[in-house]
Amino acid sequence: MQKDGKHTVVIVGYGGMGSYHAKLIKDNGKFEVIGTYDTDTARGAVSEQDGYRAYGSYDEVLSDGAVEIVLIATPNDVHKDIAVRALAAGKHVICEKPVTMSVDEFKEMMAAAQQAQRVLMVHQNRRWDDDFLIIKQMYEQGTIGDIFRIESRVHGANGIPGDWRHLEAHGGGMLLDWGVHLLDQLIFMIDSKITSLSSRLSFILGDEVDDGFEAVLQFENGISALVEVGTTNFITLPRWYVKGTEGTGVIEDWSMTGRIVTRNHGAERVEPTPIQAGAGLTKTMAPPSETATITGALPEPYRQPSSFYDNFAAVLAGTAEPIVKNEEVLRVMNLIEVIFEAGRTGETMKDFDLYA
Amino acid sequence: MQKDGKHTVVIVGYGGMGSYHAKLIKDNGKFEVIGTYDTDTARGAVSEQDGYRAYGSYDEVLSDGAVEIVLIATPNDVHKDIAVRALAAGKHVICEKPVTMSVDEFKEMMAAAQQAQRVLMVHQNRRWDDDFLIIKQMYEQGTIGDIFRIESRVHGANGIPGDWRHLEAHGGGMLLDWGVHLLDQLIFMIDSKITSLSSRLSFILGDEVDDGFEAVLQFENGISALVEVGTTNFITLPRWYVKGTEGTGVIEDWSMTGRIVTRNHGAERVEPTPIQAGAGLTKTMAPPSETATITGALPEPYRQPSSFYDNFAAVLAGTAEPIVKNEEVLRVMNLIEVIFEAGRTGETMKDFDLYA
Predict the structure, then answer these.
(1) Domain range holding B241?
(2) Helix (H) and strand (E) counts in chain A
(3) Boundaries of each Gfo/Idh/MocA-like oxidoreductase N-terminal domain copy (chains A, B) (predicted)?
(4) Is the ipTM of this complex over 0.85?
(5) What is the CATH number of the domain that holds B17?
(6) Partner residue opposite B235 with nearest CB, options A248, A347, A348
(7) Which parts of chain B have pLDDT scores under 50?
(8) How far apart are CA A156 and CA A167, in angstroms?
(9) Do A233 and B248 touch (CB under 8 A)?
(10) For strand A258-263 and strand A247-251, is the pairing parallel, antiparallel, or unpaired?
């Protein structure tokens, strides 16, 4: 089922994300897109202009023995059916995030992959984001001491974009769209059970789905994390704000502007000078004395052993474990369900985490 | 009991805060400090150097008919006894914050004031902070539309300062020290019941009292507020971050650096251009198109009708209501107790607010 030594891929759902994958695949070199399928025939025409055969039906894709991999980039509500049918037809599957709209749906997909003995991998591509990998490096190397607080925010001011992302039936909303990335990054980095969780969903734009959310997660190892997504933030807070026992780190945005400020153990302790703060004085909240801290650059990011597509090829060849493991994806889907419930009930949730 | 037409004050507890009050009183002009009392005789010597008689005992203060007002600036655990005795002796009382360590203690103080028909006012001076008053103005005037989210943070990196503030028995810790201000500002600004609350206390420095905390408050009118105090933040997040239906406002620090960014209704809608963000593209989180928003300066602050001391004088004269009402102080003390409990239990608290 390979072509010129390359793994053959059909992209199902040839919208913005589908065509982005076509570009990623071209850049990678180990795969080749041999066609696309989209229920919108206009997208079929675009596909042909782009040089990719437009299949006339999904059945046609499944019955084509030349197709080795089905890549799913459709709205979220149809991921499961498309994936289960592809796996049953003997295809490997790459699926966009969020993989499904519920834990149960994803379990069905995992079972189908197991039964068909085919590879199913979810494109949690933000495990490869440099901003995240810098924080992961700080976490692992103790750059600012033991990290005990992580704040991971993504702020925009454009509301919810696109069409189906406004609709609950299609799995719209920002928790499923961006939340899935931020939660995935956290559980990939922190190897500890989440013991409690509270959340708040935002519906300020009047959509039927959340236009943002915040969740506070407490890990068993003592770390607390805030995960926040907003689409009504005309001024943004930093992408990452992390506190360790020896300092604080910040990454402002994807341009990687940021810094770390750590305690200067070499300096003699000098009391800070009280400052006028509004109608009062404060020494507590005054800047530390000049010699008390050291400002430094962000460390180099942690390096993933391979790219998403290189890893997928290695998994197909049986030479590597998936970097994105389905058990982790399942754990994140469960977290999302719990965050929805915590937001709806206003309760603090406990004893829910699928941490193994 | 006046002297040269001025109200006479004895300051009990002549430490940093006590001597700061002496300066405030001198600047005000309607009051005169006629002495101090401190259990530390070294502070008595400083008082005399500063030109203020050092009373030899608290009984001596109480039995001195020339004393009209007792100002309490001691550690928190002795506020109540000093106040109750002063009121019983016919003195008016100004008390530093936090007024007491519990709701019950403050109820005793309020009852003593009621019985003695004397004025008891708590020095919640941060109702006069310009940064807060700018936010209050934005809240009242709809500068960024209807405000639905308020984040009020005070970040320092000096740990807990001083001596008794490290000790639980004296009412140390940051929730009682700074939290009381931030909560007081919120309830002074937002006239709505708090329907739920969750919190997390920080003990990262190994003190027996909290070295910081965060609390999330949900108001009945739809506003959610985050209140956060940290003493291990080597990089600070903005003092105020507020979101409204028409924009976002930020005040970085007490220097009043800040701005508001609002939706530009005059401009035609232009879709934002997707940006590369880590390993993916995003249109949702791309900056709004250039014409989509307007950046402006912070508004002028709301103006309090009078200063704390002018208001106190007017209340003594019976010509004004207190700006800091004891019912509000009681509500904040109750909030603090609930935040301690929420932090200890990890539960979301409901049905607790003393909002009348």
Answers:
(1) 127-256+298-302+334-350
(2) 10, 16
(3) 9-123
(4) yes
(5) 3.40.50.720
(6) A248
(7) none
(8) 19
(9) yes
(10) antiparallel
